[in-house]
Specification:
The chain contains 16 helices and 16 strands. By secondary structure, the chain is of the alpha/beta class. The protein has 2 domains: 23-52 and 313-462, Aspartate Aminotransferase, domain 1 (Alpha-Beta Complex); 60-310, Type I PLP-dependent aspartate aminotransferase-like (Major domain) (Aspartate Aminotransferase, domain 2, 3-Layer(aba) Sandwich), CATH 3.40.640. Helix 2 (60-67) runs antiparallel to helix 11 (298-310) and helix 8 (220-230) crosses helix 9 (239-247). Bound molecules: pyridoxal-5'-phosphate (PLP).
C-alpha cells in the first residue's frame, strides 16, 4: 500500500475561523440545549460532523458561477446549464429543480403514495420514510442478514436483499407496490455502496413485475468510486460513466444536491415518464416554484451545474473516500467499534459496544455524542435508538444498532482536524468514570431527533 500522507487536493484561499471553548462551558450549553446537538449554535462547535449535507466548501469555479448566475424568473441561463448537465448525467428527459431532496420526495411520493401503498428499499433515509409515511403509505427496508453483521467485510454492503424483494412483492401483491427505492450510497446503512449488479437485478425485477425503480442518488459519485474499486467489470470506466449507466437503469431519480451536488442548497427530481412528469410539474409549481428555478436562485443552479461535474473528478473522489477511511481505520485500530468497512461520507461508531453498560432505552449513542461535544467540541449525531427507536404499545423497540455517525463535510476539514478527533476518542477510551444514559423529556410526533430533549440519568456521576 502507498504509505504517503493523504494530501488534500486543494489549497486554502479563504478561511473561516473556528472557536475553541472550555469544557465547562460546553457542558453547560449542552445541558441548556436538552443534550440535543441539533439545538446547539454552530459558533459553539469546534469540529462539526453533524452532517455532510450542505456543509461542503465550494470551489473557485463554483463561486465564479455564483456571480454569473442568471436570476430571470423563467428560462434562466443558469437553469439551462443545470438542465443540460443533469440530462447528460441521468439520461432522463424530465428534470425539475427543487430546493432540497425532501422537496423532491414530497412531490414524488405525494403522487405515487397513499393509503394501502408500499415502497420497498434497501434502506429508506429518514426524510424519505417520513415523506412516504406522511401520505399513508408504508416504507419497508430489505437488507440481507449478512450485511447486518457490523464487522464483516462485504464489498457492497448497501445492496438490497433480492430474494426478500421478490418474495415481498409477491406477498404484498405488485399492484400495491408504488415503487422500489434504491439509495446510493446507502446513507442510513453505514454509507455503504450499492453494486451495479444489484441495481441491474432490481431493474429486471421491475421489468418483470411492471414496477417503478426510483434511485435516491444523493451520493451517486461516491458510490461510483466504490464500484470502480470493487466491481471488476468497471475498473476501466470513469466515475461519471458508471453513474450514467446506473441512472439509466432507473425510472426516476431524486437527489439532494447538498451531498454530491457539492452545493449548500439544492435538489433534483428527474423522471422518464411524460405523464408522471406533468403531475410532478404541477406540484412543483404549486409549492416550490416555476419549473425553471423550483425554489432556487439562479446562482444556486449555476453552482450545482458545476458541482455535479467536479464531484466526478478523480483527485476529488480519491481524496474524499480515502479521507473518510483515514478516520475510520484509525478508530478501528484504536479499538473503537466501527461499522466495517468504512463507507463514503461518514464513519459510524457502534456506541452499544463502546458503552455496553448503557441500556438501549437509555441511549448509549446519545452518551457518546455528548462526550464528544463536552470533551472536544465535536458535534456528531445518534443514528441509533434516538433516531429509530420507538414505543410499540408501551414497549420500547430499540434500533437495530446503537450507532453514532461522524459525517465528513466535503473539502472542509484538513487531516490535522481529523487527527484532533482521533485524540478526543483516545481520551474517551481512557475515561475512568463511564458516562450515564439519558431519558427523553420531550419528543415531537415525527423526525424526533431534530427537536427531542433529554435529561441525564444519574447526573451526579457526571461533571
Ligand atoms: C439527505 C438525504 C435526503 C434528503 O435530502 P435533503 O436535502 O436533506 O432534504 C434523502 N435521501 C438521502 C439518502 C439523503 O442522504
Amino acid at each position: 500500500m502507498n504509505q504517503r500522507t493523504l494530501v488534500e487536493p486543494f489549497r486554502i484561499k479563504m478561511v473561516e475561523p473556528v472557536r475553541v471553548t472550555t469544557e465547562s462551558y460546553r457542558a453547560e450549553i449542552l445541558r441548556n440545549s436538552g443534550y440535543n446537538p441539533f439545538l446547539l449554535n454552530s459558533d459553539d462547535v469546534f469540529i462539526d460532523l453533524l452532517t455532510d449535507s450542505g456543509t461542503g466548501a465550494m470551489s473557485q469555479a463554483q463561486w465564479a458561477g455564483m456571480i454569473m448566475g442568471d436570476e430571470s424568473y423563467a428560462g434562466a441561463r443558469s437553469w439551462l446549464d443545470l438542465e443540460k448537465e443533469v440530462k447528460d448525467l441521468s439520461g432522463m428527459e424530465y428534470v425539475l429543480p427543487t430546493h432540497q431532496g425532501r422537496a423532491s420526495e414530497r412531490i414524488l411520493f405525494g403522487i405515487l403514495g397513499g393509503k394501502g401503498k408500499y415502497f420497498l428499499s434497501n434502506t429508506h433515509f429518514d426524510t424519505t420514510r417520513a415523506n412516504i409515511e406522511n401520505t399513508g403509505a408504508i416504507a419497508i427496508d430489505l437488507m440481507p442478514q449478512a450485511s447486518m453483521e457490523p464487522d464483516t467485510y462485504l464489498p457492497f454492503k448497501g445492496d438490497i436483499d433480492l430474494i426478500a424483494l421478490a418474495s415481498t412483492i409477491h406477498s404484498l401483491g405488485k399492484e400495491n407496490i408504488a415503487g422500489i427505492i434504491i439509495t446510493v450510497t446507502n446513507n442510513s446503512f453505514g454509507g455503504q455502496p450499492v453494486s451495479m449488479g444489484c441495481v441491474e437485478a432490481v431493474r429486471n425485477i421491475c421489468d418483470r413485475e411492471n414496477l417503478l425503480l426510483i434511485l435516491d442518488g444523493c451520493r451517486i459519485a461516491e458510490n461510483s468510486y466504490f464500484i470502480r474499486q470493487r466491481e471488476s467489470a468497471y475498473e476501466k470506466w470513469s466515475y461519471r460513466e458508471i453513474a450514467q449507466k446506473m441512472l439509466r437503469l432507473a425510472d426516476a431519480f431524486i437527489m439532494s444536491a447538498k451531498k454530491d451536488g457539492l452545493v449548500n442548497i439544492g435538489g433534483l427530481l428527474c423522471v422518464k415518464d411524460y405523464t408522471l412528469s406533468l403531475k410532478c410539474t404541477n406540484q412543483l409549481i404549486l409549492t416550490e416554484g416555476f419549473t425553471t428555478y423550483g425554489g432556487l436562485a439562479g446562482r444556486d443552479m449555476q453552482a450545482m451545474a458545476i458541482g455535479l461535474r467536479e464531484v466526478f473528478e478523480h483527485d476529488y473522489l480519491e481524496y474524499r473516500i480515502k479521507s473518510t477511511a483515514y478516520l475510520g481505520e484509525r478508530l478501528k485500530n484504536m479499538g473503537i467499534p466501527v461499522l466495517w468497512p468504512i463507507g463514503g461520507h461518514a464513519v459510524y461508531i457502534d456506541a452499544g459496544q463502546l458503552f455496553p453498560h448503557i441500556l438501549p432505552e437509555e441511549f448509549p449513542g446519545q452518551a457518546l455524542v455528548c462526550e464528544l461535544f463536552v470533551k472536544g467540541g465535536i458535534r456528531s449525531v445518534d443514528v441509533g435508538s434516538v433516531m429509530f427507536g420507538k414505543f410499540d404499545n408501551g414497549t420500547f423497540v430499540p434500533a437495530r444498532q446503537e450507532l453514532v455517525w461522524l459525517a465528513i463535510p466535503r473539502r472542509v476539514y484538513t487531516q490535522s482536524h481529523i487527527d484532533y478527533v482521533l485524540d478526543i476518542f483516545k481520551e474517551i477510551k481512557e475515561m475512568d468514570v463511564l458516562p450515564s444514559g439519558f431519558k427523553i423529556i420531550y419528543e415531537p410526533p415525527f423526525l424526533r431527533h431534530f427537536t427531542v430533549r433529554f435529561e441525564r440519568i444519574n447526573s451526579q456521576s457526571f461533571n
